[in-house]
Write a structure and sequence with these properties.
Elements: E1 14-18, E2 21-25, H1 36-53, H2 57-70, E3 75-76, E4 80-82, E5 85-91, E6 99-104, E7 123-127, H3 128-132, E8 139-145, E9 151-157, E10 164-170, E11 176-184, E12 189-190, E13 196-202, E14 208-215, E15 224-228, E16 235-240, E17 246-252, E18 257-263, E19 272-273, E20 283-288, E21 291-296, E22 304-309, E23 317-320, E24 326-333, E25 337-344, E26 347-354, E27 363-364, E28 373-376, E29 386-392, E30 399-404, E31 409-415, E32 427-435, E33 441-449, E34 456-461, H4 479-482, E35 487-491, H5 501-505, H6 513-528, E36 532-540, H7 542-553, E37 560-564, H8 570-575, H9 582-589, H10 596-605, E38 615-616, E39 619-624, H11 633-645, E40 647-648, E41 651-656, H12 667-686
Parallel strand pairs: 34-35, 34-36, 36-37, 37-39, 38-40, 39-41
Antiparallel strand pairs: 1-2, 3-5, 4-5, 5-6, 6-7, 8-9, 9-10, 10-11, 12-13, 13-14, 14-15, 16-17, 17-18, 18-19, 20-21, 21-22, 22-23, 24-25, 25-26, 26-27, 28-29, 29-30, 30-31, 32-33, 33-35
Length: 687
Amino acid sequence: MSSHIPPLAKKVPSERTHHGDTVIDEYAWLTNKEDPDTIAYLQQENEYLKQETGHLAELQEQVFQEIKGRTQETDLSVPSRKGDWWYFSRTQEGKQYGISCRVPADGDTPPIVTTDVTLPGEQVLLDGNELAGDSDFFSIGTSAVTPDGKLLAYSTDYKGDERFTLTFKDLETGERLADEITGVFYGGAWSADGTTFFYTRMDDAWRPFQVYRHTLGSPAEEDVLVYEESDERFWIGIGLTRSEKYLVLGAGSKITSEVRILDANNPTGEFQVVRPRVTGVEYGIEHAGDHFFVLHNENAENFELATAPLDSPGTWTPLVAHREDTRLLEIDAFASHAVVHFRREGLTGIRILPYPLQDAEPYEIDFPEPLYDVSPAGNPEFTTERLRLGYTSMVTPPSVYDYDLETRQLILLKQRPVLGGYDPGDYEQFREWATAEDGTRVPISIVKRKDAGKPAPTLLYGYGSYETSMDPSFSVARLSLLDRGFAFAIAHVRGGGEMGRRWYEEGKLTRKKNTFTDFVAAARHLRATGWSERIIARGGSAGGLLMGAVANLAPEEFAGVVAEVPFVDALNTILDPTLPLTVIEWDEWGDPLHNADVYAYMKEYSPYENVEAKAYPPILAITSLNDTRVLYHEPAKWVARLRATAHGGPFLLKTEMGAGHGGRSGRYDAWKEEAFALSWIIERGTK
């Protein structure tokens, strides 16, 4: 069957003028989701994709079966203690969603939970499969138990637009309460007595901007607006400290934060500002007995840890000083100790601060592998002598440890099973350093089979925005590449946070191009040093912007590009303050609407604006119709312009018609989607 590129409806182009520059957008009509021509076009694109990739069906099914065959489908998490209960989740073979459970607790040692045995007193809190029913999409946004363990607040989304319905469950009777609240955002927090729940709502731009107080048993329309954030650059969230003593209401932009606190035993009281916002100063607060911990960046680029008295939380006394080589990420406070999560030399680490702070010597936990990622994980209990850690590397499956603070020993509780005879000794991981155009050394994390040839086809992944780090981690699906002789590499480009706050600052605003040139430098380094031959680039969301930019910048370097929910129409999106999240994003990208220099700079790199009449590699763009973060029309317009302007390709668009930013929600559906992308990558790497 021959395949035909879907025809585009002939529509009037849009024309806009900014700072004296007239922009004509011939595909702007695709932004109208309500236009039948738009939906018809996306459906035709999906049919065209099936025709173009139909020959991959056997390979796709093979990869799917490999992912499925390596995954222990009936599994469970390691229980985490909170109060009188151990909380954990189960997955069951053949079921798309997890099941959250709990059993009574006694002490710090977690019970041995098995896949085929229900423990005495085990309760099912939420069964995602029952809740999902026949819905094509399902997601849980909030799951919060009252401090006394008697009630559960949870929220659900059946469309993928991340607007949730909040409901409540009596865990003693198993009955759902009559209370129901629609249109809420992620998260939320209980008062100490469990009578009141605080939640957030978003505005039309998908910005969480209001905190409401709901009293159980009262109608939702009587809920009290506690706080509204009027500055469109700021979003808000609400939480309860681990000690359960304080409610914490945080407001933050990309560069500034402001925190309010309230005694959790007085939910109808007034929130107190810790310190008024100052542009460029970020801080967060944690409660620990007779003081607060404050992690902040006032005159401390990589952040400093301070303490503050309960009656004067804005008075900060330094505790852990700023270091040029160490980025402090977060502080977790417990009854007998505190834990600092940090980043140094491109790797994460854990530092223990025993109490009393003025007497005990802090220390760090050592880990043996050259590349790894570690973080505190599942530590809801305030009074404990154990620290739960999550650990992984590019060859070590996700592992759960308890660190015993008395013996200073790591206790392995669980390592995710990888079926089919996986042996980490068959693989190797290492770090290379590329040199960017300005002389900056850019780290690259690489994993491959020890017996793989050299040079090898390579999947090169990148992100590089929002100070988000792409740390070395394990992937079951990735084994389908490695076992076919591929190498997998992560380019830790500027704009991410891998090398500290400065790494981020050098890849944002009017230094954003460093993100793109770093990635190209990484690709060229891998080829020049003999590691790689055919390189396929992959990235999603802001990493999709990276994909579009490098396709324009150096198309000859790549045998293929996979761009997932890609932010490729960056200039038009950031120019429109009515779109979701745009004003919030101005601190990350700049404000091209009001600043001519920012406009000119963004126009120089925005992928959609810079498609040229030259040869491009094959490109696979994947998006979701209900995505609220990167709207579906960005990749749709991009692919249309590539087809009209460039040569090479082919240029393919895949639109999930019933999903959001994260793609398909069920695990089997997600595996099938990944198998599709990997089969396309394998073909591109071995042609």
